[in-house]
Each structure stands twice: as structure tokens, then as C-alpha cells.
Design brief:
The protein is mainly alpha-helical. It contains 5 helices and no strands. It has helices at residues 3-11, 28-54, 56-78, 81-99, 112-131. Helix 2 (28-54) packs across helix 4 (81-99) and helix 3 runs parallel beside helix 5. The longest helix has 27 residues, at 28-54. The two termini are 38 Å apart. The relative contact order is 0.14.
Length: 147
């Protein structure tokens, strides 16, 4: 008997469970989706740095809401934690590049408080979106008796 059939016979199940997340086989569609999400994350980071500096309290909240929407949307779209981390990586890389400044001494961010709140807030949102548990499937058994 093959190893897979032995495990199925021991567990009492005959169906194969497909690999997900990092264990899933590589294909061009998944790779392209992750690259696209990273590019979108870089664009949100660039746009957020401009918006948060222009309209300080409201712009900062708008920029962080855009980060949260993209990070959570990427995780939900791909169904993996890596789907939330790919746009977060693009966002962080763009922020670090923008921190470099110009030879004249200027940089994109307006004030230090907005910069700190944007960077720390974005990182906290990225970690929260990557570690959120997945929603239960509709019609799935809740595991509670009587339900």
C-alpha cells in the first residue's frame, strides 16, 4: 500500500486534502498574483506617504485605511497569510526607499509624528492582517453539539 493510502486507511478518510499556503505547488498564476500585490503595496505606500503629509490627521487615517484594505484584501483573495504579506512587503520597501531623501536634503514625509504613525500603524496593520484567522466556510460544522 502507498503511504498516502495507509494514512487515509488509518484516519478513516479516503479523500486527499490539497496542499495550501506555502505547501501548495508553484504555478505562474500564484506567482503573478503575489507580484501584483507587492506592486500594489508599493503604490499604496507611495500614495499614502503623500496623502498623510498633505492632510495630517485625516490623510493619515485614509492612508492607513488603504493599507488595511489592501493587506486584508490580499489575504482574502489568495486565502493565505502570504497574500497579506506580499503587499505589506511592497509597502515597506517603498516607504524605506522614500525615507532615503534627496541630495538637497528634502524627503517626501511632512513631519516626524506623521511619519512615525504611518510606519508603525502600517506595520501593525500588516501583522494583524497576516495573523487573522480565516473565516469559517459557509455551512461548515461549528464543532459544537446541537448546532
Amino acid at each position: 500500500m502507498s503511504d498516502g493510502r495507509q494514512r487515509a486507511a488509518r484516519s478513516g478518510s479516503s479523500r486527499e486534502v490539497p496542499a495550501t499556503g506555502l505547501a501548495a505547488p508553484l504555478d505562474a498564476g500564484r506567482i503573478a498574483a503575489h507580484v501584483l500585490l507587492a506592486v500594489l503595496g508599493a503604490l499604496v505606500g507611495f500614495a499614502g506617504s503623500l496623502v498623510q503629509a498633505a492632510w495630517f490627521p485625516g490623510g493619515l487615517l485614509l492612508a492607513l485605511a488603504a493599507c488595511a484594505g489592501l493587506f486584508r484584501g490580499g489575504g482574502r483573495f489568495l486565502g493565505t497569510q502570504l497574500g497579506a504579506l506580499a503587499p505589506a512587503a511592497g509597502w515597506l520597501i517603498s516607504i524605506v526607499i522614500l525615507l532615503g531623501g534627496r541630495p538637497e536634503g528634502d524627503y517626501v514625509f511632512g513631519d516626524e509624528v506623521g511619519l512615525i504613525l504611518f510606519m508603525l500603524g502600517g506595520m501593525v496593520i500588516a501583522v494583524m492582517c497576516a495573523t487573522m484567522s480565516r473565516s469559517p466556510l459557509p455551512g461548515a460544522d461549528s464543532g459544537r453539539p446541537g448546532k
